[in-house]
Backbone:
């Protein structure tokens, strides 16, 4: 067993938000080898804070990389575009990304991501879904979040009052016009 990979197993690492997976063993196994994980107490970090993530993750050893597929649900905080109140927006994210080891598991020299392939790095045999998930969440967040389809907006309850205010302001406007007319007459 490789002494540089403590534990030397494919078990999911505890700690770090539950989105980190030790792939040291998987990388040494035959192509097509797979692991499937159900997330437990995983947390997603983003600008607005932390939020639980649920779902499953499948890791597959491909040619030199790990294909990560994940089916996740989480809620992120949004501000409603109508009533301007914060609310929890539920998101479903289907993630599919390749992760590349910084060095071959059996050799120690660094390895480049091949031309034409994209992906995220595997650091010290740890595959961390956090950054990939952050990008997917950003793509999936609504451009104009609405707390609920029938949200009438912040002004809804006070709309009649607003109309009344508009009407009542017409009189002062008239007064000002009158004053202006008076001024004009004086100028002439
Ligand atoms: Zn709203």
Residues:
């Amino acid at each position: 067993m490789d002494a540089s990979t403590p534990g030397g197993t494919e078990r999911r690492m505890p700690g770090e938000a539950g989105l980190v997976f030790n792939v040291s063993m998987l990388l040494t196994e035959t192509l097509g080898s797979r692991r499937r994980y159900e997330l437990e107490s995983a947390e997603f970090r983003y600008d607005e804070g932390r939020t639980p993530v649920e779902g499953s993750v499948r890791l597959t050893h491909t040619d030199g990389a790990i294909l990560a597929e994940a089916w996740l649900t989480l809620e992120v905080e949004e501000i409603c575009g109508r009533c301007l109140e914060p609310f929890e927006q539920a998101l479903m994210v289907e993630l599919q990304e390749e992760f590349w080891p910084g060095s071959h598991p059996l050799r120690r020299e660094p390895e480049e991501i091949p031309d034409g392939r994209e992906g995220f790095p595997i650091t010290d045999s740890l595959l961390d879904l956090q950054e990939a998930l952050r990008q997917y969440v950003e793509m999936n967040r609504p451009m104009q979040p609405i707390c609920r389809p029938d949200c009438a907006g912040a002004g809804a309850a006070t709309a009649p009052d607003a109309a009344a205010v508009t009407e009542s302001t017409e009189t002062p406007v008239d007064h000002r016009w009158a004053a202006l007319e008076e001024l004009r007459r004086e100028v002439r």
Observations:
- DSSP finds three helices and eight strands in the chain.
- Helices lie at 130-140, 159-168, 170-187.
- The chain has two domains: 16-140, 158-188.
- Strands lie at 20-22, 34-38, 42-46, 49-61, 66-79, 86-101, 120-122, 126-128.
